[in-house]
Amino acid sequence: MYRKKFFWVTLLVFGLILAMVTGCTQPETTTPQDGDEPDGPVAGADVVKVGMVGPLTGGAATYGISVRNGAQIAIDEANENEEIPGVTLEFISEDTEGDWSKAANAFSKLIEQNKVDVIVGAVLSSETEAGGPIAMSGKVPTISPSSTATGLTIGNPYLFRNCLSDEVQASQLAEYANVELGFEKFAILYTNNDYGVALKDAFEETAKELAEVVAVEAFMDNDENFKPQLTSIQRKDPEAIFVAGYYTEAAKIAQQALEQGLEVQFFGADGFYSPVLMEIGQDAVEGAIFTAGFHSGDESPVVQNFVNKYRQLFNEEPDMFAAQAYDAARIVIEAMKSKGTSSEQIREGLAEIKDFPGITGNTSIDEEGDTLKDVLILKVEDGVFQRLR
Amino acid sequence: MFSAYYLQIIILVGINIIMATSLNLITGFTGQLSIGHAAFMSIGAYAAALATLKLGLPFFGSLFFGALLAAFFGVLIGVPTLKLKGDYLAIATLGFGEIVRIVFLNLKITGGAVGLRGVPKNTTILWVIVAAILTIFVLNRILKSRVGRALVAVREDETAAESMGINTTYYKILAFGVGAFFAGLGGGLFSHYFQYIHPNSFGFLRSIEHLCMVVLGGLGNIWGSIIGAAALTAIPEFLRASADYRQLFYGAILVLMMRIRPEGIISGKKSRKIPPGKTSAWRGKNKFLKATR
Description:
The structure holds two protein chains of two kinds. By secondary structure, chain A is an alpha/beta fold. Helices cover about 45% and strands about 20% of the residues of chain A. Chain A has two domains: about 45-165 and about 300-375, Rossmann fold (3-Layer(aba) Sandwich), CATH 3.40.50.2300; about 165-290, 3-Layer(aba) Sandwich (Rossmann fold), CATH 3.40.50. In chain A, the strands form three sheets. Chain A has a seven-stranded mixed sheet, with helices on both faces. In chain A, strands 2-1-3-4-5 form a five-stranded parallel sheet, with helices on both faces. A three-stranded antiparallel sheet of chain A has the order 11-12-13, with helices on one face. In chain A, a hairpin with a 2-residue loop joins strand 11 and strand 12. Chain A is elongated and about 65 Å long. Chain B is built from twelve helices and no strands. Chain B has helices at about 5-30, 35-55, 60-80, 85-105, 125-145, 145-155, 160-165, 170-195, 205-215, 220-240, 245-260, 280-290.
């Protein structure tokens, strides 16, 4: 009986492994996994593969899924309008679970197994840090739509990004708050991760040059109670608080500050950009001013075209991640149009992008692969975002 | 010979074999439920990376340094938590794991929340294979010796072991120290392979992943841990073909495996049933072999 059971288990394990191995090789030759191409590549037409890497499951999945959706729209548009003559784009996305070591696997898989020509991704900064060297050794150009870590693209000619670095946003905001709005006494409350730290450092540096920073306090992701930090800030009596973090925490901070009778102007960065900010924060976030890479209320036809398509296809509002991913994929397509569709040609094309009219503003790529674009400044007015600058 | 992707999976399998077998020493053989193994891995990873970057040690030296430091912390956590058993020890190790992660998140020298960049890529397939074989060999020698039998005795019944003259305190600390040493070695290989490390990859979930490998492979069996590590590293990669349903299938496989063989792929503990046609003397004959295998 013992033997028999062991035999069946072994058989099952082998069966599973066999199924996985065959299942793993099939999709490459038959149907594209994620691409919406009902009639497949036309005979004679080239297929250029665009990979995407990001967290599609796990805690950061909301960012990864937005990026995948945004890039998907850009790829579908290019295929529908036959923007690159004789070329069909195939879109393949891979999950990282939000873990950088798994992002490295995803990069290797796309480059070695799927032989992608270009990658849009990764999403989190740590993922792009781990994937960058792999993309470089595989000579596959990679453009991240959302990894904002300082100095990310330096020293890697195959790595580009289409998002404002944390430093640029924070230092421009500090300047705006002081020069345009006349604030003199700042406090900083930052989330202790790469995003929060980079924002804090840049804001603190600029604000100290121009005015005064009276308190700097940290909190952790997913914290619920900010009273200790707010109490210690309150003692220093600042005029404004810069919250370097994401909307969920920011909304709670604003509410708890109001409960404590701490009446100050709230500033933030692109982590504020979500309707959830108002849902949780209600009246407390009214008047908050923050930098953003995208404003869906913008009336220009390109923005409205994207917003409408996104609503239609995915039944939700596009966020900043989706918009930057759409632009990143558009920039890749632009590079293909100008130089050609091999990996090396795409890399050359990306390096030469100048004043590309995207939905997240005019975009140029500098010699380090970093992005130069306008920083939008938005304000919460009557529960909606209004553009200040 | 292999594409770089398969090579990467093989390297990760090798590192996870080191992690799983060393955790098996603590949890499977000595019976101390630890869910902070990723903390020892991260100590080794950071220490080895910093030894290479700041001290300029050769690769072997860095790996050894990382492993030693991890062993030191293994002993350190072993001492205050010795009086704890089962669930209580698990929670204490969990807390230790979180402390280590948060310390790395806040230290300046480790790059804090930005992570540590620019670690040279010294880990090759050869290093990993040698390290994995060394780990298996050393653990096997330990387990087949008097020390190994003492560890199993601590697992089976602490009071009985004590009454037989086994210093349970010493052997528990020894298990934690040796387990952490090899976890640190795995961590050093890990950081020198990816060239980048960030604390968020060494959290609670990774510790649980290691524990899954050990339990799935079979508690108290080195070969089981090897199979468990290989399976749980390779399965999620093979499942990439199923795109969005990947995690679903992965979970289903775990549930199925545990349902079919709750004792793990290769069971370390002796079977309670006597096969038909054998007398009870059969169990006596196999008892010694099975307990120490």
